[in-house]
Amino acid sequence: MFLSVQFTILALQLANVLAVALNPYDSLAGLTRDEVDAFARTVKVVGGQPAPAPIADTSMKLVNDAAHPWMPLTADQQRGPCPGLNALASHGWLPRSGVATPGEIVTAVQNGFNMEYNRALLVTYAAFLVNGNLLTNLMSIGGISRLTGPAPPAPALASGLNTHGTFEGDASLSRSDAALGDNHSFNETLFQQIIDISNKVGGGRYNVSAAAEVRFQRFQQSVAENPGFFFSTPRFNTAFIETVFPIVFFIDGRSTDPGLDLDVMRDFFQNSRMPPDFHRRGTPSGGSDEELDFVMAAHDYVPGFNNGTVNSFTFDPNFMGTQTDTLCALYEKFVNTTMELYPSPQGDLRDAINTNLDNFFIPVSTRCTQIFPFP
Ligand code: HEM
């Protein structure tokens, strides 16, 4: 009895010490379940929230408006590998801090760019499950930030979109492979390649022909330079659609030009800035239209990876997982990664993961069978 009272006092003291000693961004790796719980009690646990409803008005409209002016970055604000989310944050469609809830991201990509609702759900909840903080319901669109609050214990990452390997991947258009340099900042050398190719095959604009050749060039470069180059699920899917996003979303909604002006493209990619008077497109799009088919068909691609040495690119026979439909394979991949990051979640964390897994399933529910890793 006495011993157990003593133990309780000790445990309380430990909880107090932890509450004081740990910074919100410190890893909780190696702590026991009780220690983690004691720490979690010192922060606000928001947990999973229902996905927001689609926006009602999907007409073309001015989005670089008086209420959403571009502002330069301050030292504590996060920007990362996604020019779309960066611009939304720098115009105040997302919190300018670059730290947002998944619901805020789903609504902002619709409001700012007219991204189609289901695509917004799919991309956002995929990223949030693997890079967000499921306890505080916040994600950094860039690097690790104290604003997202204390993370669940390792192997959970909760370290933002800059995190390599779960969502962010190799052979990006304007960012280096993580193994070769900075995977999230604008890279001038790579952007010059985009300019050169657009001048050669796009008539001085970034159009589908340019997108197809930039995609292929970046693929070939990673095969030749990155021994650990990974280009299978999910990267095999995201790498193609991202090449057409600038054409689909960064061209002014009033324009009939099928190509993107390169200065406008640079301002989005380098400065997170929309052009003056920018209008979003007039119809919702997921970005997976004829442009995507064109880019994928322009060269021969297979999902795969380098085997630890350059130029060893090998087909990945497991790229479909247990699925026969590519979208369901993508869904399964993110569920599996979530399970790897959260081997045995309990309590609030388990509830939050399940809510976000439900949200992630919404956009694929007509095609795929739901997976319940934590029933
Ligand atoms: C819906 C939520 C979104 C999330 C969570 C997200 C996340 C990301 C991430 C993690 C990357 C880096 C992938 C890589 O290259 O390794 C990326 C790239 C990219 N994203 Fe987004 N994104 C979202 C929406 C958008 C939107 C609405 C646009 C356009 C308006 C956009 C445009 C792009 C482009 C063009 C790239 C490629 C950048 C490059 O390869 O240099 N994204 N996004």
UniProtKB/TrEMBL annotation:
<dbReference type="GO" id="GO:0046872">
    <property type="term" value="F:metal ion binding"/>
</dbReference>
<comment type="similarity">
    <text>Belongs to the chloroperoxidase family.</text>
</comment>
<keyword id="KW-0349">Heme</keyword>
<keyword id="KW-0560">Oxidoreductase</keyword>
<feature type="domain" description="Heme haloperoxidase family profile">
    <location>
        <begin position="66"/>
        <end position="303"/>
    </location>
</feature>
<dbReference type="InterPro" id="IPR036851">
    <property type="entry name" value="Chloroperoxidase-like_sf"/>
</dbReference>
<keyword id="KW-0479">Metal-binding</keyword>
<protein>
    <submittedName>
        <fullName>Cloroperoxidase</fullName>
    </submittedName>
</protein>
<dbReference type="GO" id="GO:0004601">
    <property type="term" value="F:peroxidase activity"/>
</dbReference>
<dbReference type="Pfam" id="PF01328">
    <property type="entry name" value="Peroxidase_2"/>
</dbReference>
<dbReference type="InterPro" id="IPR000028">
    <property type="entry name" value="Chloroperoxidase"/>
</dbReference>
<keyword id="KW-0408">Iron</keyword>
<keyword id="KW-0575">Peroxidase</keyword>
<feature type="signal peptide">
    <location>
        <begin position="1"/>
        <end position="19"/>
    </location>
</feature>
<keyword id="KW-0732">Signal</keyword>
